[in-house]
Amino acid sequence: MKVGDKNSLPYLIKWFFIPWLIFIIIGVYLYNTMKTPEKNLIKPFVNLTDVNPDELLILDQKRAISEGVERKENMPFYLEGTNGVGVLLIHGFTATPYEMRQLGEFLNEKGFSVYGARLPGHGSDPSYINKLTFVDMYESLKYGYFVLRNKNSKIIVLGQSMGGLLAGEVAVFNRVDGVIMLSPAFKIKSKKAVFVPVMRKFIDFSKKEDFNEKLEGYYYKVRPVEGIYQLMRLSNHLISLLSEIKSDVFVIQSNFDDIIDPKATEYFFRKIGTDRKTIEILNDNRVKHILTTDENPLKDEIFLKVYNWILGVI
To answer: Which end of the chain, N or C, is surrounded by fewer C-beta atoms within 10 Å?
Structure first.
């Protein structure tokens, strides 16, 4: 039997066994990287009810300063209200508390205490995000949660995009009275997302297309690829727990979202455990992914919808 013969062992190894071995190795790797993370990766927040709320705010702000956050708009903020209801605001991936500031001020004018959380790695250097996990993002919310819990009788947790997923995690593992998800990042629309588990080993950042340069001080111009992978893991983790959300839920989603698949949002909304849930689908083609800034022409209308929904819960 000649070496070049199609029935020869070297030929079979080179053109059959090796390709299949590579295919199997890649498949196993992708399966392991995208399988649902263990539930116990997330735990209830450590009990900080005995800690002075002012000290918790200072600790959170010092954490931001230690990461190089300089702009005031990118720092965590607290606005005290009068009606005994606290609202924890959580911004999205690569954003900052700036993204939630206008909504926070609107709700505070209505009497609510508001805490604008800053997720770690945000508002300074995008390379920091590549060093963090979705568990780190969740854990950072304990400061704002207990600032509000220690001063108010009821808590609403509200998040945008990745912040919407984190709001769901907070609701599963801690006591809240309501959850609001704005454009929750259940499924990334881009087909490139499927390559993230592999490409994160070779590429640190993905450049944002059509980035608004006016927002450079408040948003990163790039998406940290490891961070995208952690966002996908967060989505898988929450999806497996949606049936355990028992508090009231309000979801707002645009049909013209340019980042997140709106059909996936509607699908996973139906998986949420509570019967006390509402979804609002926006069919205005001017409304994209971010709902809380001036980029959204229906911003004020959405603020009012959020306010009225909270009144119905409390």
So the answer is: N
Examine the domain organization and report whether 171 and 28 are in the same domain: no
Q: What is the pTM of this model?
A: 0.90
The pair of structure tokens assigned to 203 is 């590429």
- Same domain? For 20 and 127 the reply is no
List pLDDT tens digits, range 227-262. 999 999 999 999 999 999 999 999 999 999 999 999
Shared domain for 55 and 29, answered yes or no, is: no
215 and 251 together in one domain: yes
The parent domain of residue 231 ranges over 46-313
CB 314 within 8 Å of CB 247: no
**Residue 2 predicted with pLDDT over 90:** no
